[in-house]
Design goal:
192 residues, 6 helices, mainly alpha, single chain, 8% strand
Length: 192
Amino acid sequence: MGDSLTTENNTLATKRYFNYIQEDLHIKQVNNYGMNGSTVGNLFAPISERYTTMDNSANLITVFAGINDYGKGQALGMPSDTTNKTYYGALDVLIKGLIKKYPGQKIGFISMYKQSFFPPTNKLGIPDYAYINASIEVCHRYNIKHLNLYNLDSFDLSKPDVNGYSVGDGIHLNNKGHRHLADTMEVFIKGL
């Protein structure tokens, strides 16, 4: 589940992280629920609502999202929020919902890496890392494993792309970037 980095319609790379993961880990079937521009909160194609349409038989669920909430100005809210009108609340709705929908299955949340597509502070005056911290906090609350790509220097697209991972827009990845993302996520998935 995710946004433009997860959608199968992403034409910026011919092979994407989930394709590599499927091959490397010999996963029989991948159900892709990525959608361009999708937010966790209620602003656009909310993941906190879309998760209900996911296949009930999944045994490994990953959510790679949050950058559009930051970039589009989803209210951050408070840790006590429980509706998808804020990012904190939407995370609460989503994670509680996934736990109920997939009892006993492996669930992981992946936060966005540093990027330069959106400014370092959004239109609400909130820095990008505040959304990462919210994800970490809510995942911890429900004992959901969290992969924080924001703290990985190899994924820092806010600087010149010395690794050659970006398509040049400061956020989307090329094939090489998706390969690196897959390698990073595979270690995380094996630990779920």
